[in-house]
Design goal:
By secondary structure, the chain is an all-beta fold. Helices cover about 0% and strands about 40% of the residues. β41 (about 410-415), α3 and β42 (about 440-445) form a beta-alpha-beta unit. Pathway: Glycan metabolism; pectin degradation; 2-dehydro-3-deoxy-D-gluconate from pectin: step 1/5.
Amino acid sequence: MRNITWAPAAMIAADKASFYRCGFISLQDTLSDAHGRHYFESCHIQGAIDFIWGDAQSFYQSCSLEVTGSRIGLSYITAQGRNSESDMGGFVFNGCKIFGNGEALLGRAYRAYATVLYYNTYMDNIISPQGWDAWFNTGHESLITFAEVGCEGPGAHMSKRVTWEKKLTNVELQKLINVNNFINQDGCEKVSIKREKPFIFLEGESSRNTIIAWGDSGDIVKSPTFSCHADNIVASKIQFKNSYNVNHKKEAITWAPAALVEGDKVSFYGCSFISVQDTLFDALGRHYFEKCYIQGDIDFIFGNAQSYYEKCNLFVSISGSGSNGVGYITAQGRESSNETSGYVFHSNTIKGTGPTLLGRAYRPHSRVLFYKTYMSDIVSPEGWNAWESKGHDGTTTSSPAHYSTTKEVTMKTITVDKSGKGDFTTVQQAIDSVPEDNNAWIRIHIKAGTYNEKVSIERRKQFIFLEGERRSTTMIAWGDGGDVVKSPTFSSHADNFVATRITFKNYYNHPVMTNNGDYYKDRDGKKILWAPAALVEGDKASFYDCAFISVQDTLFDALGRHYFQNCYIEGAIDFIFGDAQSFYQKCNLFADTALLGPGQSYGYIAAQGRKNQSESSGYVFFGNTIKGSGPTLLGRAYRPYSRVLFYKTYMSDVVLPPGWDAWNYVSSEEKVNIPREKPYIYLEGINGRDETVITFNDHEKTDESATFSSFPDNIVAKGISFENTLINVTVGKMMENVKYIGYITAQGRASENDPGGFVFEGGSVVGSGQVYLGRAYGAFSRVIFHATNFASNIIVPQGWYAWFNKGHE
């Protein structure tokens, strides 16, 4: 059987299209309901995967939706692609019938603002209880409008639906189920205010519901949907839209303004301007825009006006054609230093779907200021382009834009999709296509999926931006071990590298418990070996929202200056190691040392390799979180001048009190610089969370004994008594065919004179699985259970475990 792939029966991208008693039959992507306003009545639509999909504004009346997914697995009826809050797209199903075979979800969110309503619709028992899937938009479910109202049938039970399904107000519902409200609400006309008609106040009800739309192009003066030539004009709560480029993606992108404004003293409040190229021709005069939404791709705010934009949302919608993959927000046209024109953006927000520059110089004295503005990561590092004014950069705005005379900003985008829908099917193929000595940023967008391959970026392939869709859905994985240079799943040797939203995984060490209880083996019974998920040795490399997963030597942070933000790093032994100069901010470090079992009693997070005092290398962990499945030390000295700092970092109780290990450099600890600067440690109590903050000295080096005598007296427990405590054991089946045993206590009394100890008076121990009463965390560990009720078969017959203290029981 051939692989199933997209095979539409119909694609509809024109406006005002209607279908009566028609049939649409395929398996995947049956009906590409792409763009425009559409009406379907008494139609039959059959398929299994996303078989009604797109960004149209469509009403389905009394249609039959047949799911044919018995050989597919889980099917999806809709994949709706509404792209922004002002986008009018959405699917409404009124009085329809859903039946067929297999199991199906009502829809998944193809874009962040996906909108689908099933109203008075019969649903057979093929509908999965959860109903919906956020798909690429997990974490942003509040933006999605998926709703069911008045539906019936065995598949319409709502009790197990996703919690984020939209509860529509009556006003919201009426706007969707009334055909005239939903698909006939655009004012399809061109509007022009002539120069001799000043003092007009145009007021809509909201920019979502009051729309003036037209589709024309090719002339920035004659094509705009709305033209304002008069002075003293005010507009409020209206959407101005030019649909020429928006709804006809295959045509060459060209000038198609939504609005032309050339009168003096003109203001817009809560309005929207939507097009692709030259959206807002802010031509001449003094203008004010407040809380407006402006969407486009190329020069979408341009002209020679003197304008102030306050608290506006600027949305860059990269179209994929006509702009070489990079957008431009502004193209300001100040002709000389005597002109007062310019654009000021105060407290705005810049977001979008692709890379953009803040602007390019439309005229030699172009002037643009962004002030206190939020800029998402779509803004290219260069920021600006001199365009036709090269050689006159000094005459442009004095904002911090430093134009490069050696490297152009031509952000090219390459798409990797293992299903064959992109430019390449493997990540390495895409990287190989980048020319050596490249000096312009190239974005490689990796579609969701697990790419089972080794990936390497050679030293001469600079300026690569690897972009996944989400680290939970975009993964590069391989399984190799034994050589920290040759084994990594991902290797980056080039300078100027950025990665975002990707998981790098080395699955070579996949531990399982052997018959004799020894965890410290890999799947073949060998000792766990070095198996890096990533090797990074180029300079100026950054990782955002990435994950690195292995067991030993997960992240070989080898050489160069590196930055990691909001990353997840998992391992057990030296899982961040090397001699780089790296800053880890707001990362989650997970010490999965339980995988090692009793054969390896604890793990190590960092093994930093600074060789001498003159080296600038070291690791700084700022605002991180440390959790895990078993005990760990913060690090051990990989080289004699090892340097690691944990600053304002949450450390759960998996971090052992000694904190550090001098390793091969015992008696040379004065060279090792491993301070913990004011970390915040939260102690977890039995009956809730005791959020006691322990503050270390400002600069604290440890010696081999690591006594931490600087602990405040009021933090050190002199002895704790738990009275009538209920202890609930939750030891489950965490791995197939493996029996796990838990531990209730791990008491750490260190000497005969230490008054510490735990006393449990009365109370009960209940739950699932089996546990030891405790294991000896310290040589003089002391725990007493008195008059305590133990549920049957909870406590293992042995009762206690000596742990680190075998031979000293």
